[in-house]
Amino acid sequence: MSESVSTTGLSCSVLVLNRLYMPIRVVNARRAFILLCKNLAEVISVENGTHFCYDIESWTEISQLKAQYERESHDFVQTVRYEIAVPRIIRLLGYDRLPRQEVKLNRRNIYARDNGTCQYCRKKLPTSELSLDHVIPRALGGKTVWENLVCCCVKCNARKGGRTPHQAHMQLAKLPVKPKRNPVINIRLGSDKYSSWNHFLAHAYWSVELK
Fold first, then answer.
1. Buried b (16+ CB within 10 A) or exposed e, 104-141
2. Domains of the chain: which residue ranges?
3. pLDDT digit string (tens) for 84-111?
4. What's the whole-number average pLDDT of the chain?
5. pTM to 2 decimal places
6. Which residues contact 26 (CB under 8 A, 6 or more apart)?
7. Which stretches within 79-182 are classed as H helix?
8. Phi-psi region of 140 (alpha: psi -120 to 50; beta: other; left: phi over 0)
9. How confident is the model at residue 78 (pLDDT cuts 50, 70, 90)?
10. DSSP 3-state assignment of 129?
11. In this model, does residue 35 exceed pLDDT 60?
12. 15 with 189: CB under 8 angstroms?
């Protein structure tokens, strides 16, 4: 990949497995290709319920067939001489640590858990129009925890102010809970392009950290 490449496809998400085939994180395609070209990882391709392993040279050759016969099922990166399919999954060849079980409490994960939808007015909005709300305000002893934070639009946040939903005559769409695995993964699994992830995400307790 020392050649000049287009940026198309480089922002796609790639699931990373450790040496024991356990999911550990999600990276963008640019990072995945760097690991592959340094021979620190291999491509895992799930085909008809079975997975196959490819080094970067073999994957480059396979990509030519995928570009010809399966183009709609893949994203591609264009180099000067050829196209290469963006892998959905890679496996690190020298890393066998267990995945972290804790899902990070951060703005991105809360927005993902609530599907970018204000939990008071039920409107799905771009992130620029969303904020976080403490259901029980901090001034009233509310804590900064999964069960007390919700995605909220700016308008509803201003309307609620420093009150509880009951005091503000507002009702939550659903009670906030701590997700068992990274909620961003659930969003990705809703796309057919990432269906192969299910092959390695069969158990809900696996949580995948985004880097």
1. eeeeebbbbbbebbbbbeeeebeeeebbebbbebeeee
2. 13-100+183-210, 107-160
3. 999 999 999 987 665 555 678 888 889 8
4. 83
5. 0.55
6. 13, 14, 15, 16, 182, 184, 185, 188, 208, 209, 210, 211
7. 107-113, 154-160
8. alpha
9. confident
10. helix
11. yes
12. no
Q: 170 near 156, Cβ under 8 Å?
A: yes
Angle between helices 56-69 and 29-37 (to 10 degrees): 130
Sign, Cα dihedral of 92, 188, 50, 201: positive
Report the relative pairing of strands 209-210 and 23-28 from DSSP bridges. Answer: parallel
Report the CATH fold assignment for 107-160: DNA Binding (I), subunit A (1.10.30)
In the numeric block, which tokens belong to residue 68? 């010809």
> Which residues have C-beta within 8 Å of that of residue 4, sequence separation ≥ 6?
79, 80
Q: pLDDT higher for 61 or 182?
A: 61
17 neighbors 90 (Cβ within 8 angstroms): yes
Distance CA 153, CA 87 (A): 36
Split at pLDDT 50, 70, 90, the class of 203 is very low
| Rounded-to-integer distance, Cα 5 and Cα 33, Å | 12
